[in-house]
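Appendix C: a fully annotated inverse folding record. The material below is reproduced so that readers can follow the format used throughout the book. The structure is listed first as tokens, followed by the designed sequence.
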């Protein structure tokens, strides 16, 4: 009952963004986009730890707020003071448009209905900074044909030679122009628009994008 497209492009040889999917049982899947502070190998190592921890814990936490608390404590315990991660975790269930959400300091997922693009509710604190941080489970309800987009700040904060940001407006314009197309085309059009905007400028951050559609 879902179309899913996932993409990540590291700015260096290895990246600190986490893009992942896991089927947890016959009905439930999660998709996740995480963004670790920093660049290259140090960020990539923490991203791998976040992925392994999330895959180990997620199937056993009925409440996503509790999952956020557990993830945060582990990353704080094992990390460094300057290392943290934002996370957008979405749990999909077969044959329903109800999406359970854990948003730990990440940009709010965008919901596309027709040509209308709206941001869902902002999330809680990033993971790994404060050991006693609390998190809440959120939700998004979508109808058949609605699309949900999760992205890293490497999309909106990409700069061209004039040091302009790609920004929210260009991202939303691309999504509105292509929302009627299959999810892989929607995603690729954003990536192409971003590449055209940046041109020959050196990319400073990883670019990650997830596009979901309820069929």
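Designed amino acids, in order:
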């Amino acid at each position: 009952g879902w179309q899913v497209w996932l993409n990540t492009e590291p700015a260096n040889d290895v990246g600190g963004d986490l893009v992942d999917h896991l089927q947890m049982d016959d009905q439930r899947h999660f998709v996740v986009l995480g963004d670790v502070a920093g660049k290259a190998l140090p960020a990539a190592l923490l991203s791998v730890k976040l992925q392994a921890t999330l895959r180990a814990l997620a199937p056993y936490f009925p409440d996503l707020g509790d999952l956020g608390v557990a993830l945060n404590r582990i990353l704080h315990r094992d990390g460094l003071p300057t290392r943290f991660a934002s996370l957008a975790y979405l749990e999909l269930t077969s044959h329903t448009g109800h999406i359970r959400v854990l948003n730990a300091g990440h940009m709010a997922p965008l919901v596309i209905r027709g040509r209308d693009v709206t941001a869902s509710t902002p999330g809680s604190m990033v993971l790994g900074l404060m050991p006693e941080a609390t998190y809440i489970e959120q939700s998004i309800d979508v109808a058949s044909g609605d699309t949900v987009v999760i992205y890293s700040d490497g999309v909106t904060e990409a700069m061209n030679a004039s040091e302009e940001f790609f920004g929210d407006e260009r991202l939303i314009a691309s999504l509105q122009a292509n929302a009627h197309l299959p999810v892989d085309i929607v995603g690729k059009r954003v990536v192409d628009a971003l590449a055209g905007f940046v041109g020959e400028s050196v990319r400073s951050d990883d670019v990650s994008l997830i596009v979901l559609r309820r069929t």
